[in-house]
Amino acid sequence: MYRARIISTGSYLPEKILTNFDLEKIVETSDEWIRERTGIRERRIAAPEEAASDLALAASRDALKKAGLRPKELDLIIVATVSGDMLLPSTACILQNKLKIKGIPAFDINAACSGFIYALSVADSFIRSGTYSRILVVGTEVLSRFTDWQDRTTCVLLGDGAGAVVLEKTRKKQGILDVKIHADGSYWELLHIPAGGSRLQTSEKTLRERQHFIKMKGNETFKIAVRTLEKLVVDTLKNNKIKPEELSLLIPHQANHRIIAATANRLGISLEKVMLNLQKYGNTSAASIPIALDEAVKTNRIKEGDYILLEAFGGGLTWGSALIKW
Ligand code: ACO
């Protein structure tokens, strides 16, 4: 029986930093409000010439380099994003071309902030079934292009970035032990971009009404996120007969410090066992978990044999978790 193991991680964050103090000059907000309500201090913003595939390329090269692999040694590319270069084609195909390879399958997954867990789940299934052996999974977002910089309820939350992992098949009882994904489409309106798709064609009216930007009912989303994630992490550990104290690191989607703290509290683990970097990058949607994972690896917070739990919640609504033995 095969399992999927993460053999390397990589990330890329754009250079430009936008602080809470910078935002105070743009919308009616304060550094204090943003820090207290979210934990965010600053976020990165992609350069005008940078699109999702450019961030993805840099993160992918980083992961491939650390794995000692050339792009042509991959046999599948999956990109999780809601802010791809274009509606057509997929960002995964554009990334494949930038990696100067062809022939292998490449596709995108849209599950908003849960996108990376969804992509990991698909990659895991392909490896377990023996279909593919070495898969590049990337989370990349340039949310700043879909952010309404006049809407203080969303613009203070989001950031740009990309993270990547290379997964390889192994016969050891190591790697992804359990990955679960979920959705409840009845809540789709809580987090959406109304125009620019086939529902509401781009027009002068949609542009005037700022319908091409992210709309979020934050407070409702917050309450469902806390409830759902608390149950998700407890169930994931219980189903795999792992006690919370056996967990070395929780790597949550970086949306809100209060959501993360509630989840850790429900598990009874201290925040020292939680990977937190939203203060630097804000909510980078599908990119947040692979960026945090890469930082955890770089700062030696993970060693072989450790149990790690990844969890995410996002638009759709979607959510998911992945239990890993490193
Ligand atoms: N600065 C100052 N005041 C603000 C700001 C701001 N940036 N934004 C909102 N406010 C005000 C509101 O207008 C409101 O004022 P009122 O009481 O006079 O009406 C007040 O602050 C409280 O607003 P709430 O929305 O109730 O604040 P809340 O405590 O819920 O925090 C937040 C808002 C941070 C958005 C929180 O709800 C949250 O994190 N939600 C979940 C986000 C999430 O996890 N999304 C899913 C993933 S994202 C994805 O998939 C792309």
Explain this structure:
The chain has 326 residues and is an alpha/beta fold. The protein is built from eleven helices and 13 strands. It folds into two domains: 171 residues, Thiolase/Chalcone synthase (Peroxisomal Thiolase, Chain A, domain 1), CATH 3.40.47; 149 residues, Peroxisomal Thiolase, Chain A, domain 1. The longest helix is centred in the last third of the chain and has 22 residues. Helix 3 crosses helix 4. It has a five-stranded mixed sheet with strand order 1-7-6-4-5, sandwiched between helices. Strands 8-13-12-11 form a four-stranded mixed sheet, with helices on both faces. A two-stranded antiparallel sheet has the order 2-3. Helices cover 33% and strands 25% of the residues. Acetyl coenzyme *A (ACO) binds next to helix 2, helix 6, helix 8 and strand 12.
Hetero groups in this structure are: acetyl coenzyme *A
Number of strands: 13
Oligomer: single chain
The helix count comes to 11
Structural class of the secondary structure composition?
alpha/beta
The N- to C-terminal Cα distance equals 18 Å
- CATH 2nd-level architecture of the largest domain: 3-Layer(aba) Sandwich
Largest sheet at a glance?
5 strands, mixed
What's the shape?
A: globular
Task: Please give the radius of gyration in angstroms.
Answer: 19 Å
Reported by name, the CATH topology of the largest domain is Peroxisomal Thiolase, Chain A, domain 1
Strand-residue proportion:
25-35%
Residue stretches low in confidence (pLDDT < 50, at least 5 long) are none
Percent of residues in helices: 25-40%
The domain tally reads 2
Strand order of the largest sheet: 1-7-6-4-5
Helix and strand element order: EEHHEHEHEHEHEEEHEHEHHHEE
